[in-house]
Design goal:
heterodimer; A: 288 residues; mainly alpha; MetI-like fold; 14 helices; 0% strand; flat; B: 353 residues; alpha+beta; Rossmann fold; OB fold (Dihydrolipoamide Acetyltransferase, E2P); six-stranded mixed sheet; five-stranded antiparallel sheet; 20 strands; 33% strand; transmembrane (chain A); cell membrane (chain A); transmembrane helix (chain A); transport (chain A)
Chain lengths: 288, 353
Amino acid sequence: MTLFSQAFRPVGSAKVDPVLIALWVSLILLALIWITPFVFIVFTALKSNATVMGASAFMPPTELAFENFAAAWWRGNFSTTAFNGVVITVIKVPLGLFISAMAAYALAKVPMRMNKALFALFLFGTMLPFQVMLAPIFRQVNAFGLINTYPGIILPYLAFGIPYQVFILYCFFSAVPKELSEAARIDGASHFTIFRRIFLPISLPVLSALLILDFVATWNEFAMALVILQDPKMWTLPLGLMSFQSQFSSDYGELNAATIMTVLPAAIVYLMFQRYFVAGLTSGAVKE
Amino acid sequence: MASVDISGVKKAYGAVAVMHGVDIPIRDGEFVILVGPSGCGKSTLLRMVAGLETVTGGEIAIDGRRVNDLEPKDRDIAMVFQNYALYPQMTVAQNMGFALELAGRSKAEIKAEVEKAAEILSLTALLDRKPAQLSGGQRQRVAMGRAIVRHPKVFLFDEPLSNLDAKLRVKMRAEIKALHQRLKSTIIYVTHDQIEAMTMADKIVVMKDGRVEQIGTPLELYDNPANLFVATFMGSPAMNILPAIVQDATVLVAGVATLPIVAEAAPGTKIAYGIRPDEIAIDPASPVKAEVIVVEPTGSETHVTARLAEHEITLVSKARLTLAPGDAIGLSFSPDKHQLFDAATGNRLAAAG
């Protein structure tokens, strides 16, 4: 009761604030809307196919059909697709962040003649919707003979991930007082030492935020993988999910179990890093 | 420890020249303070000595070796910044030991140096803290500690006390001066605060618009300023400057006061008459009358701003005055304490003053 009534009052005030009530109500409504599909997926994943067809979609499962997960894993070839997803994500995400951080440091802190033009080029990269580039990229990857290979998918991922990360990190590095790198220069540090020993540690929150965004985006990426990875042995999880749907379209229980297994790693990574995520998105945005 | 020779140093950003040939000789172990208003080029000059700015013309030599084209780390200098520039993710000990670590010194050596410096600066208890957990004064001391551990030939300070509150500034002023006496190192220190300059320096360099106006000991500058700028910049409250006209053996100041002078100027010459606030006394018998505008008691002394003809003048009295704005007071000017300047050029007139 006290907790509930406190939520509707401004701190230190005895009066209930109608605006706060309205905000709480809309917050709860929004949360309900967002959580509905998850409830549907989890419930359905735990139902046998007969129950899915027979009962309402939002009825809790009466008997938990955990066998859906085992069946989905086996039928959807998850050991292959999960392995591919891990290889691609674990190489692409850290490598992309490292390249972006170095590029952003060079643009922000190393005086060069072309800094502005290069930064504009990166900005241009953030503006290109990659669907537009799907066909040309396919031709190029094909020309290099990289269709159905890890480099064939990782290189385009890097190309489309880096501009946005460079933009964010450039803003962050630019806001770092120049005295910090000057002090390090006087202390005898080279640019690479300054980058590794000073700038990387202080940008950990931003890097964590970018890591989450990039991990989730890479793990769940569908269109580019569909075009470039044509051999089912090279498929990632979202591709495996697609084939699942067409092959076993009648078995909703297994489909949803597969969906949960696909989304789970991304959700875990997100939860692990999300406290940095919030801090990271605002840091560097405002100059102190 | 080393001498520093700055000769004919110029700085230009593109076509815009900001420093027009600066010569400053600095002896081994000297505490030199560069002082001047914002934009006078004092910080730029310090950064050129540090190697953080390129030198457009002239030469900077440390210990007789030309350093114009050397990297900062090869100049054997250490710098303390206004905003401290401590590495936020490192502890106090790591901050202080960073330069030694980069120089490849052993862990034991670094530890010994850091502990020695920490002891000098009373930072021993704080060695494991991060900069964010320190107060402003403590951060300032860590920044100095970072400089001390390297035993540089020259210490450079760029307005190190500007971010501290007034009380702490006075304390740190004394600490830096004591540190200099202990280490006997060469220090170049930049400030816009003339009191800092007066109290700490062996030698003050007054700069304005990218030029050196005067170099001298604090009291030399106070007693014998080379020109109007130095006269009004050094000393607080500032020296009163009044327009005057030379007569035979006297000078007519502000059109109202006739005062005795001996100056090498022809009668009728227009000059600027300067007198420090503590050389003006309140004297009811004096024929020179002024009207009180503001009375500022500071406790030990009282500052009075008064209107003499159409000019405002400031005087400082040791006495506790019971004056109110609007009161009429008589003023007497200490004879022989004035300083006379050419009204056109601002340069000091050779005078028996």
